[in-house]
UniProtKB/TrEMBL annotation:
PROSITE patterns: TATD_2. This is TatD family hydrolase. It comes from Hyphomonas hirschiana VP5. CDD domains: TatD_DNAse. Belongs to the metallo-dependent hydrolases superfamily. TatD-type hydrolase family. A divalent metal cation 1 binds at residues 5, 91, 203. The lineage of its organism: Bacteria, Pseudomonadati, Pseudomonadota, Alphaproteobacteria, Hyphomonadales. InterPro entries: DNase_TatD-rel_CS, Metal_Hydrolase, TatD-like, TatD/YcfH-like. Keywords: Hydrolase, Metal-binding. Gene3D superfamilies: Metal-dependent hydrolases. GO terms for molecular function: DNA nuclease activity; hydrolase activity, acting on ester bonds; metal ion binding.
Amino acid sequence: MFDTHVNLHGEAFADDLQDVLGRAREAGVRRFLAICDRFDNFPAVHAIAKAENDMWCSVGTHPHHAKDFTSLTPEMLIDAAQDDKVVAIGETGLDFHYGYSPEKEQVASLLTHIVAARKTDLPLILHTREADDQMADILETEIAKGAFRPLLHCYTGGEGLAKRALACGAYFSVSGILSFKSAKDVRSVMSEVPMERIILETDCPYLAPVPMRGRRNEPAYLAHVAEALAALKGMPVDEVKAITEANALTLFSKVSVA
């Protein structure tokens, strides 16, 4: 399995990161993608990835922090992405639920990341919450200007965004949310997304899957995400693991040669 979204550079894993990674490897996680949430955290994220042979990272700024990085340019992201360990741009996107950054700054930041993703031909990791229509509009407009590779991570959006994003060539990652009893709408949407467009993530330390709800999430729990997807699709879990790993290596194509 490939855990395509881990948040390892914060306090949650400060005391036992090596134990956490060891448990994940024992559980069958072969590769990890460490996510950059703020551009000024990139050195810390990169250092964690650089220390591990089976880990890579992204570079970007989460929409929550867009207001703090209004001077971020595509060139800054592109320069960072020249490193062999950097295999994706993001996480970026739109989040109108919390509104930690104004809409204008979020959109500007997203467009900056899209330019970088297009020029580097690296996948663009997208966070979307309560912004389905605007995200779909931006994807369609920007894809028309020039190709890039969107990934709608930890997908919780609606059917409309899913269909429009699929038409743009997007991939979708599923997290522990897929296993939550309350996530009927997520399961309904993901049941219609083709398996060849789905990958797995934990988004640790958040969103621990059933039966680990209430605990700190960690990459070892990715197997439970695979089980939830297998149940949804009516497939053997080993087949789901194999397909989603292959999908992730296709999407994050720099990993295979790094």
